[in-house]
Amino acid sequence: MSQDPIPEADLSRRLFLRSAGSVAAGGVLAQGLLGACAAERAEARSASAAPSVAEGPEELAGEIEIELELNGAKQKLKVEPRTTLLAALRERCAPPLTGAKDVCDRGNCGACTVHVDGKPAYACLLLAVDLRGKKIKTIEGIGAPENLSALQAAFCEHDASMCGFCTPGFVMSITACLEQHPGADRATIQRACSGNVCRCGTYPHVFAAALATAQQAKKG
Amino acid sequence: MKSFTLLNPKTLEHATRALAAAPSSSARVLAGGQDLLTEMKEHLVEPEQLVNLKGIPGLDRIEFTAAGACTIGALVTIGALEEHAGVRERLRLLAEAAASVGSPQIRTVGTVGGNLCQRPRCWYYRSEHAKCLKKGGDECFSFSGMNKYNAILAGGPSYIVHPSDLAPALVALGASATLVSAAGERTVPLEEFFTLPSAGDVKHENVLRQGEVLTKVLVPAPEAGLSSTYLKFRERGSYDFALASVALCLWRDGARIRKARVALGGVAPVPWRSFPTEKALEGAAFEPSTFEKAAAAAVTGAEPLGQNDYKIPLTKGLVVRALQSLA
User: Is the ipTM of this complex over 0.90?
Assistant: First the structure.
């Protein structure tokens, strides 16, 4: 039997976050969540450990080691076929890349937006094993606190974060947009953000920050 | 999401052979996964095997013949379709429909084949707790329940609406789809690809058989003089499915309409080819009184369910606006 692929500490943190979320939503009982997590772990354990090697098509099952190109560096990580890129980033990378946020996990909110070969995509709706050979960029690859990208600096200047949970997703979507259309107008920016949701409603500040960055780029 | 094995065939033959060998309904075809993965996360489907098409070369191409016919591979992403210069120039409504699909993130990954084969958005269908008609139950809960987003045309016994934006545009263009299985290949006009729930198989929205893969869409060269548009109305300004949409192809001789092809989205369980609208347009003058007649014809036979009555004036308004936009 292979090592438990989901560490205890991680489970309890996820359990806390999910419970907190569902209490806020007035939804499922915590007991139900405990059960769901236990089931998920049992499932993870039961998956066979070695990838089957057969002639013809590649067949992947159970836990397998893959190599991904994350923010310009190759990294080996262990995943299952069902592991989403979002789960791989947050739970399988060392150190974990937690900038992409796990919010809806259904491609509705945009908090997990990353770039795949330069284009925005929802990390929660991609299988990690499917991304071998692709260039993946996360918010960790955009800037650092001591070296912000122009857009990130504009976010600070324009007070474009309230709770901040959606911010990495917005920065990823707008960064991809400005790479394609450096002098983008407001309509282009809004369209680029149409797959990102901010529950605090900070949209006007987000658009102001993006427009300021675009205008800066126009001036050169 | 439950565990599954992932098969990465490099040829279509390997893919169809694997699908044929898999026990019924335990294998699914994976393309972009933008719908399938959400269904798996909601436990609506729990396949033991996914057959991934993305490693098969050649399925992601858009090609025009010299005569103007267009072949669109099933793995072409919605974003690639939206941005393709030839599509924008020659098949405007299709580029517009692609641009209206989902969000930028979904258009990066989602494919043409997946968009056509996506499952309904009806909230009863999407809830793992509601055993509705589509999931082997014996009632379509939307009929007497929350039916704001459901069908006004051709509903029953299921009242889903088909969620695809590309489908009405492609139906208006007279496109057909190529379906390949281990047993062979067939080409089906898209109008016949999509099936009404009343046709017998209420659990499926199309004629795809178990083990069959949609590999490409063929758009015939449009007759000269085509002007076209896809107009979609959403409940919110950002990304969403259509409450109603109109795909319109029009050919004019001066001030007169020579020919029209119209398909509606968001109002019926299939992309709804509207023959009454076409009849109201063909041979008529291109003027506001004709637009009004065409709009009234578009909702002929509509049977709203109580909370979706608004789709009647909405659809009529969209038909008028789509026509006005081609003036």
Answer: yes
